[in-house]
Design goal:
- The chain is mostly helical and 273 residues long.
- It has helices at 2-31, 36-41, 53-61, 64-95, 101-112, 116-129, 136-160, 164-172, 177-188, 190-205, 209-214, 223-233, 238-258, 260-268.
- It has a domain at 63-224 and 250-268: MetI-like (MetI-like fold).
- It contains 14 helices and no strands.
């Protein structure tokens, strides 16, 4: 009897969590296809007829599509670089015998607990001095550096689960450390590496402060600052705001559904602890 009650409570809790997660997306999708007048009359009602006027108003008043491209131009190379560097660092800390490896790891880990806002102003001053303000290259490398400790921490536990005998066998066959990393560690740790890549994508895509400071010009602005400005311009026009928020969340949704199985495997295999 107790087990049935406990299972029922767990099931009910999971259902509530699922509803609370999906409801904002449904709310944005429904209200983005309503007129302003219909929303003001009944904010929680269903649309009597579908209208795409909010989307046309969104693209005609702000460079939303351009900001999406800017975000992809920054996020994609930053995710690739950060994930590869995190994988290489986690491999070194778990499989390569180096002196003071744990000390170096925990020193690097301290950076992960440092608030990004603390280093934001010094970073901007240095970037501005080099004349690279509102340039994509510094933003890519800064996002890469900030996300390496986080990815290394997640992948370290994943790589530690790989038997040392596999690495030792490759060393006996004459393989170099880098070749072992490419031919052995990367294929075995693929689920965890993809999981770290997805989480890194989410961290960079949803970031506001760094992108707002480093890329604040109209021709380099990313999607999150554009959405922040949109909320200030169209606070009274909620359907337009909902259309922008929904389109801004669309790339992350597509990424999740495209890699859901691998993401879950990576979570279960110990990539996130």
């Amino acid at each position: 009897m107790r087990s049935r009650i406990s299972r029922g409570l767990v099931f009910t809790t999971l259902c509530l969590i699922g509803v609370s997660t999906v409801y904002p997306l449904v709310f944005m999708a429904v209200n983005s296809m309503r007129t302003t007048q219909a929303f003001e009359l009944n904010p929680f009602g269903l649309p009597t007829h579908l209208s795409l006027s909010s989307y046309s108003a969104l693209f005609s008043t702000v460079p939303f599509f351009q900001s999406i491209l800017h975000s992809l131009f920054v996020v994609v190379p930053a995710v690739i670089l950060a994930t590869f560097a995190s994988s290489l660092a986690a491999f070194v800390f778990t499989k390569v015998p180096i002196k003071l490896g744990n000390v170096l790891f925990w020193t690097m880990l301290m950076i992960m607990f440092m608030p990004g806002i603390v280093v934001l102003l010094p970073l901007y001053v240095e970037v501005a001095r080099t004349g690279l303000a509102n340039n994509f290259a510094p933003a890519i490398f800064i996002y890469t550096a900030i996300n390496i400790p986080y990815g290394t921490y997640l992948l370290r536990s994943n790589f530690r689960a790989i038997p040392d005998s596999v690495v030792e066998a490759a060393r006996v066959d004459g393989a170099s450390w880098f070749k072992i990393f490419l031919r052995v560690i990367l294929p075995i740790g693929k689920p965890g590496i993809i999981t770290v890549g997805i989480l890194t994508f989410l961290n960079i895509w949803n970031d506001l402060f760094i992108s707002l400071v480093l890329l604040h010009a109209p021709n380099t602005e990313m999607v999150t600052p554009t959405l922040a400005q949109l909320s200030g311009k169209y606070t009274s026009n909620i359907p337009v705001l909902m259309a922008g928020l929904l389109l801004g969340a669309l790339p992350t949704l597509i990424l999740y559904f495209a890699t859901a199985r691998v993401f879950i495997r990576g979570m279960l295999s110990g990539a996130v602890r």
